[in-house]
Design a protein that fits this description.
By secondary structure, the protein is an alpha/beta fold. The chain has a single domain, classed as NADP-dependent oxidoreductase domain (TIM Barrel), CATH 3.20.20.100. It is 37% helix and 17% strand. Strand 3, helix 1 and strand 4 form a beta-alpha-beta unit. The protein binds NADP nicotinamide-adenine-dinucleotide phosphate (NAP). NADP nicotinamide-adenine-dinucleotide phosphate binds next to helix 9. NADP nicotinamide-adenine-dinucleotide phosphate (NAP) binds next to helix 9.
Length: 329
């Protein structure tokens, strides 16, 4: 691998592939108490396992999940798929959301250190491992004062050897700063894709020496060519919550304005033999040397296409400038 296909998680010395795999979709269906879908529709667990194996074979060494994805199912499937190769990879999971595994329903939030301890024990069991490489606080808008307590709880987990490093999943630089003050904080997980830039947070990641882990790198599939037509019932995109931009609230599919912006940059993203999804990932690597996109996946074909982006590397500086010009930024 060239240097461009590797990243280090902050100041920890933990090396990962420059591409991680996001394991939300492979959790399968679950919902909010009011029936709002929180998964990406039905999944085939055997295909999910094959997709993880394909990712491993193609050099992916970083996997991002959360305890709540599929109310525990994503962690179980990832643990099963990794099996004896678990120590060959870096596993990130998250805590903060409550859920009922029996009814596959979200059940509120808990930002107490006592819950972090309980959630960690449960994640270790579901993943079938004795440590979490990167433990992430999932409540994007969490209380900063409470977060300072959680940061200290994470430092304690590191001392005990059950966690190697930690991060906050938040789009707010001021919240991220609370965790960044901790010795073993390694990253910020935040939204970043061609259509949703985050210059302030990227600048802070540079300043703090932290990795920028990019969720929704394909804009929930739009930057992989999805979004024409009505999403299936049971898919979060069929009834998008307020925090999910890019899809119309009436469930009719993608926002036309988002699709128009993708059309504007399609040619440049798909130059040099890249598919649209590969071009979207290449934009992220060109945007900053700290970025680690974690595209979601549900099939072997998606795993191959997304992992295949690594061999093609980042966009050139000239292509990056051209994308910014085309988007009027
Ligand atoms: N911390 C948080 O609060 C948070 C929030 C969001 C996401 N995340 C993390 O970030 C990861 C990725 O973000 P995301 O799931 O929001 O969206 P994304 O990566 O922008 O889009 C992923 C979806 O795009 C489609 N896709 C992926 N590769 C494709 C390909 N090569 N060709 C065609 N379609 C493709 C798949 O859906 P279909 O096949 O169903 O179209 C896939 O589930 C998640 O899995 C999760 O780990 C974290």
């Amino acid at each position: 691998m060239t240097h461009e296909t590797q990243r280090t998680l902050g100041r920890t010395g933990i090396d990962v592939s420059a591409l991680g795999f996001g394991c939300w979709a492979i959790g399968g269906e679950w919902q909010a108490a009011d029936g709002q879908p929180l998964g990406w529709g039905a999944v085939d667990d055997e295909e999910s396992v094959r997709a993880v194996h394909r990712a491993l074979d193609l050099g992916v060494t970083f996997f991002d999940t959360a305890d709540c994805y599929g109310t525990g199912h994503s962690e179980r499937i990832l643990g099963r798929a990794l099996g004896r190769r678990r120590d060959d990879v870096v596993v990130a999971t998250k805590w903060g959301n409550l859920f009922d595994e029996r009814t596959r329903t979200a059940d509120g939030q808990d930002d107490t250190p006592a819950h972090a301890r309980r959630a960690l024990t449960d994640s270790l069991r579901r993943l079938g491992t004795d440590h979490i490489d990167l433990y992430q606080f999932h409540l994007s808008d969490g209380d900063p004062e409470r977060a300072a307590e959680l940061r200290e709880a994470c430092e304690e987990f590191v001392r005990e050897g059950v966690v190697r490093a930690y991060a906050w999943s938040t789009d707010d630089p001021d919240r991220a700063a609370v965790f960044a003050a901790g010795e073993h904080c390694a990253a910020v997980q935040h939204t970043l894709n061609v259509l949703q830039d985050a210059p302030d947070l990227l600048a802070r990641c540079e300043e703090w020496g932290l990795a920028s882990i990019n969720r929704s790198p394909l804009a929930m599939g739009l930057l992989a060519g999805k979004g024409r037509g009505r999403p299936a019932a049971g898919d979060i995109r069929s009834r998008p919550p307020a925090w999910l931009p890019g899809y119309d609230a009436d469930g009719s599919g993608a926002d036309e304005e988002w699709l128009a912006r993708i059309d504007a940059v399609r040619d440049i993203l798909t130059s040099d033999g890249r598919t649209l999804a590969q071009g979207a990932l290449a934009w992220l690597w060109a945007r900053s040397p700290r970025t680690i996109p974690i595209p979601g996946f549900r099939t072997v074909a998606q795993a191959e296409e997304n992992a295949g982006a690594m061999a093609k590397g980042p966009l050139t500086a000239g292509q990056l400038t051209e994308v910014e010009r085309l988007l009027g930024r």
